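Ops channel
N.P.: pipeline sanity check, posting one input/output pair.
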């Protein structure tokens, strides 16, 4: 089955196809993981939806979705685990069980206590709507706890679990990127800055070829998305030349 979308990268006979939307941090995590693996893959742009055809391959109607030789896989964690299990080199999980668990712990804290909570504020930041004061206060309280936890958990060396980039790095980088945009807009606070160990890590992640490829598509799509929703937030103010040249965004 092929979904409606625009093919932006073709890799014939790879057996893998990633479907999703460049604005989605979860789609971008999976795309970065495939790039880090060095495997060719098809990339098809498609939005989440809930019609019967789409639900057959993504039961919750969400993106990203990975097309494999054996069928479709939805949900980001499942996709990342499949990529790691079927493409073991270069490894994006440590071989040591304890270190693997530490990586999953970081992923879980970032997903459950940071990204999931700031997502409830997306309407007032990215969708041209308004956030209620109760919601803003509740998210602030959770972020305070999560920031303290991540200060304890995230000790890059230079990456989160040692000298090589891994799934924990990719997951944290793209989730904290979108979370930081929200916290700076809503609270005038940078969650990345408050996790005081991440300055050099953030720079190292931003300079990776996978990040440049992902952000090269993310920024133009995000600018268009924000304009379509008449959002107050303007991502062009956050663009650093080291990540994406301005010409990429304004093309």
């Amino acid at each position: 089955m092929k979904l409606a979308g625009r093919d932006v990268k073709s890799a014939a006979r790879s057996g893998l196809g990633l479907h999703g939307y460049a604005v989605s941090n979860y789609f971008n995590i999976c795309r970065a993981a495939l790039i880090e693996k060095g495997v060719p893959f098809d990339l098809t742009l498609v939005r989440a939806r809930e019609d019967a055809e789409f639900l057959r391959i993504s039961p919750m109607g969400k993106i990203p979705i990975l097309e494999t030789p054996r069928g479709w896989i939805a949900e980001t964690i499942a996709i990342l685990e499949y990529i790691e299990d079927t493409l073991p080199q270069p490894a994006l999980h440590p071989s040591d069980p304890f270190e693997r668990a530490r990586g999953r712990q970081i992923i879980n804290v970032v997903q459950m206590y940071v990204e999931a909570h700031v997502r409830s504020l997306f309407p007032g930041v990215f969708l041209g709507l308004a956030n209620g004061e109760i919601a803003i206060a509740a998210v602030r309280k959770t972020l305070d706890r999560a920031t303290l936890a991540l200060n304890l958990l995230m000790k890059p060396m230079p990456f989160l679990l040692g000298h090589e980039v891994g799934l924990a790095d990719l997951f944290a980088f793209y989730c904290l990127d979108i979370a930081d945009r929200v916290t700076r807009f809503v609270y005038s606070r940078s969650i990345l800055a408050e996790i005081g160990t991440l300055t050099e890590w953030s720079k190292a992640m931003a300079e990776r070829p996978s990040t440049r490829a992902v952000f090269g598509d993310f920024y133009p799509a995000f600018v268009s998305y924000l304009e379509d929703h008449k959002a107050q937030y303007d991502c062009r103010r956050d663009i650093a030349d080291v990540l994406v040249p301005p010409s990429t965004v304004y093309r």
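N.P.: looks fine end to end. The chain has two domains: 6-86, 97-250.
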